[in-house]
């Protein structure tokens, strides 16, 4: 019979703070991005993925996009459809896989990310990084890398 190893008071407080930080920061970034650029966080995440320097031709397979964003197939499909209707991306069928498709960045999508990115980055800096010391930023990077490695293991 296994016993649950409950969080101690300090761990519980840190966990609740992390959950609250994530929710409040995501909501604020989404509101501000929507107000300043008309893009949602979901739009922005897809545009960032497609403009990543390691993405050749600003195009990814639908499943690759889902893997990068850790999204379910249906979420990727619905979000791409919404963005396609606004001219930000286009779908292109995959010649060697009839069921597969590519998502390509359009000129409109490129212009949208170029317009939105400076304000979004400034807000991320203002809300997140400006209050941290260089050591706190390094510690945050080490923390995130450690947790991501544990997630990759499981």
Automatic annotation (TrEMBL):
Pfam families to which the protein is assigned, alphabetical: MarR_2
Gene Ontology MF terms: DNA-binding transcription factor activity
InterPro entries (alphabetical): HTH_MarR-typ, MarR/SlyA-like, WH-like_DNA-bd_sf, WH_DNA-bd_sf
One GO process term, biological-process aspect: response to stress
Domain HTH marR-type: 1-149
Top-rank lineage group of the source organism: Bacteria
Name listed for the protein in its UniProt record: MarR family transcriptional regulator
Protein source organism: Nocardioides albidus
